[in-house]
Specification:
The chain is of the alpha/beta class. The chain is built from 13 helices and 19 strands. Strands 1-2-6-3-7-17 form a six-stranded mixed sheet, covered by helices on one side. A four-stranded mixed sheet has the order 16-9-8-18. The N terminus is likely disordered.
């Protein structure tokens, strides 16, 4: 996943504060508790949790990096668990994109009783970013439990959610659940990039019927903890910014470096990059961000809170925008952002450059568009010697899926049994997840994990990636009950 936690949040209008009964997460299994066998129903809550931990460890310790791992192997291991739990082979499929034998994924279905009811789709990616043992000081693909944390590459992103979904299907089968809606699991590869095939995109393009759903539960939003481990909010993602790369390019005839002329492709491009760096996209406040700043203002007394109130009341308030823009996250909520991420050019150390280009990475608000952003960047560069073109075709904007009572009601019901007094806050992701694969399909995708974390505590994509043991087990309870409730009542 690209961005998680508190710093990716934008409140969506339409949902009031939620008072979430005492925490009922299962306690860790006592030492000596007999472990449940993989794929088999456990006889007690302790055994059930022990079986889940074993499943989680197996998935985390299966290397799924682009360089040395295999998502197909991981998918097959999870498929084996489901078939051992009693799922017929017809309901468990490991799919492998052609010519990419290591980039496979898993589709599995618990059938529903209503032939007309679309599935509840549980979506999680099983690929992970690279991890070097020299940097970690140990094997990053060995799960370590220490000081209340699980740590390993993928311990959080996104194998925690993937493990919970597989475990949930095993539990549903063991209890004989017959929901109205089918409950379908999709474990996919390639979300993190690394030249792997993006499984979510591949399924939408090639097996669209398999991922057509009443709603999708995906990563993208967690819960927030303060420094004292108190729960601050539970988040649900509803909408994402749009990812778009542009190629900024300058060319020249070149020549011998001992005879420089008036033009130099590198210098011209550098001047254009400086103008992009100095350019700020205008503030765009909509119902989503307006409500976010209105409600967050009460949590931020002082200058920042005052600025939040002001920008919500008047988007043209330049002083308020300037105050909030000092924080990179608030800045990303207020406007589209574009930043230079790569540069390449020149042919030789003793030759005038003939061509040089830079990659400009943009994260575009749903209210804007790729062509509109390109036009604004071209105007900012204002140099006919520099071209600016999209690196890939413009994609559709997913927009913000509706947060109707049918969506939020089950969350309120389940979360209310776990976390009293914790507000539910819908958010818009300023990064990106596999929800982008569903843009333009009409399938509503919501990011919701129930995993609480402190700011900057999970070390996603970095050394020492981790998740609190308590958070993982609570999220297991939460997502298990939530998916079941959606499937029986939606």
């Amino acid at each position: 996943m690209v961005l998680r936690g508190f710093l990716g949040r934008v409140l969506v209008v339409g949902l009031g504060a939620l008072t979430l009964a005492a925490c009922s997460s299962e306690a860790p299994p006592p030492s000596g508790a007999p472990p449940a066998q993989p794929g088999q129903a456990a006889g007690s809550p302790q055994q059930s949790q022990a079986a889940f931990r074993e499943l989680y460890q197996e998935l985390v310790e299966t290397n799924t990096t682009a360089s040395a791992g295999s998502c197909t192997v991981a998918a097959q291991k999870m498929a084996d668990r489901l078939t051992k739990a009693g799922y017929p082979a017809a309901d468990v499929t490991v799919f492998v994109p052609p010519d990419h034998p290591k980039d496979g994924g898993l589709l599995a279905t618990l059938p529903g009783t209503d032939p007309a009811a679309k599935p509840i789709l549980l979506l999680a990616h099983i690929d992970v970013v690279e991890a070097d043992a020299k940097d970690w000081g140990r094997d990053p693909f060995k799960l370590v439990e220490k000081d209340g944390y699980f740590s390993a590459r993928g311990a959080s992103d996104d194998k925690a959610m993937a493990s919970i979904f597989v475990d949930s299907l095993i539990r549903y089968r063991a209890e004989g659940l017959q929901p109205k809606h089918p409950i379908r699991l999709a474990l996919t590869c390639g979300e993190e990039g690394g030249d792997q095939v993006n499984g979510a995109e591949w399924l939408v393009a090639n097996q669209r019927d398999k991922v057509d759903a009443a709603l999708v539960l995906n990563e993208g939003a967690d819960g927030a903890l303060d420094a004292n481990n108190n729960r601050v909010s539970l988040d649900i993602e509803a909408g994402e910014k749009v990812y778009q790369d542009f190629i900024l390019k300058a060319t020249d005839a070149g020549g011998h470096s001992s005879i420089p002329g008036p033009n130099n492709a590198i210098q011209n491009l550098a001047a254009g990059l400086a103008r992009i760096g100095a350019f700020t996209f205008p503030v765009e406040i909509n119902d989503v961000t307006r409500t976010y700043f209105e409600r967050q203002a009460a949590l931020h007394p002082g200058e920042v809170g005052d600025a939040m109130k002001a920008i919500a009341a008047n988007p043209a308030d330049a002083a308020a925008a300037a105050t909030l823009s000092k924080d990179p996250q608030y800045n990303a909520m207020l406007r589209t952002t574009c930043v230079v991420t790569m540069i390449n050019g020149g042919e030789a150390k003793n030759a005038l450059p003939q061509s040089v280009e830079a990659n400009v990475n943009c994260r575009i608000l749903p209210s804007s568009s790729g062509p509109k952003v390109r036009d604004m960047l071209v105007a900012a560069v204002n140099d006919s010697k520099i071209s600016l073109e999209p690196r890939s075709p413009y994609g559709p904007t997913a927009g913000i899926p509706p947060l109707s009572p049918g969506v939020t009601g089950p969350i309120e019901q389940v979360a209310g049994k776990l976390w009293p007094g914790v507000p539910l806050i819908p958010v818009m992701q300023v990064g990106a997840t596999d929800a982008t694969a569903f843009a333009g399909t009409g399938v509503p995708v919501y990011g919701l994990s129930g995993m609480f974390e402190k700011p900057n505590d999970s070390h996603i994509h970095g050394v020492g990636e981790q998740i609190q043991v308590r958070s993982l087990y609570e999220a297991r309870d939460f997502l298990y009950e939530l998916a079941k409730l959606y499937a029986t009542t939606l």
